[in-house]
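Listing S7. Sequence submitted for prediction.
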Amino acid sequence: MLDLMPSLGSWRPAISGQRCAVATIVGTGGSVPRPAGTSMMISEHGEILGSLSGGCVEGAVVEAALEALRDGGPRLESFGYSDADAFAVGLTCGGELEVHIQPLTGGMPEFSGVVDAEQPAAIIRRLDTGGGVVMVNDPVRFRAMESPELAHLVGDHPATVFAAAAQIEPLLQGGRAGLVRLAPPAGCIDGWVTTERLEAPPREEEEPQPITLFVESRLPAARMVIFGANDFGAALLPAGKLLGYDVTVCDARPAFAGQSRFSGADSVVTDWPHRYLQAETAAGRIDSRTVICVLTHDPKFDIPLLETALHLNVAYVGAMGSRRSHRQRVDALLDAGTPTEALEQLHSPIGLDLGAVTPAEVAVSITAEIIAERGAGTRRPTLEAPGFPSLKDSTGPIHAAPPAPTTPTQEDSWT
């Protein structure tokens, strides 16, 4: 839904107050054209804003949306490719989509605010009942347990809010979209808390239904900070940009940092590396998605920089050097008081063992290691299959399914 909100202020059906339905991709499998969180708005007269798949399922989604507007009920539609009928509505790329369709019969007050497409934002929607929306302006600093709007959305029960927080905050702070399913606490019917004056227990057919939320979060591009304006830094810069990072190159030597080959960076800084990292951290510009690559290969820069970096909650810290340099670096950091457990997050020597030699090849090995860390949990080395195998030597789906959302019970929520 976040992708549509900047356009709602100028979309004629929204301005004129027409009844509309919003269709959102809430689940995907295999190869699909658009990610979870992509939405399409359909007016009561069939006008469309946005796209879910580039055309292959839009017609069926419009029909389902119009039907939802007629009967006033939300629905979940699934689309996939059928070998038995090549002309059936589906995805010829072989993927699967789950699309939630929600009629907005009372207009669009929840979505009336125009969201700047360049600014951080998030939206939490309830799918299992008649709706409900919580808008979040600062996803990284949002604290679910402190939000009265979220508490009301899930039924004002502390245990449920606690369970929701455990799943919602990682999605918000990671700039991701996903479903959150929660087991309703005891004493609920259809997800809403009942009073203690209930005279008889709910009938079996009224068994409480899981609470289902859909979270969308948009954050600025994650940062890659490259320390070292040298051949390896020049090769890693475009590789980092290709992965979507906001890339900074920092070097204390003006003659190195000022070279034209670094002009493609989002920012080039001339400063002592550790001083710059400390200043950026204090300013709140370093977060859990930040990637730090130490390519200076000089102890007078590396040691104070790594002392700072290894105390931060960041996604990746890597340092270039031989194994001998690594041992000397570890000894120096231990002597400086760096805890042994902090050293465990240091990737040194930097990069995956791909046999890389040239700066360009080393850049590939570094970005490969960053991707492997970023996707930790879906493809991890094991004793039976050490390292990261070639796709030709592996089996199963190429795109591993994300872990299924947990459904903590009321008792689990307080552990």
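Caption to Listing S7: primary sequence and predicted structure tokens for the chain studied. Residues 119-193+208-220 form one domain. The first helix runs from residue 5 to 8.
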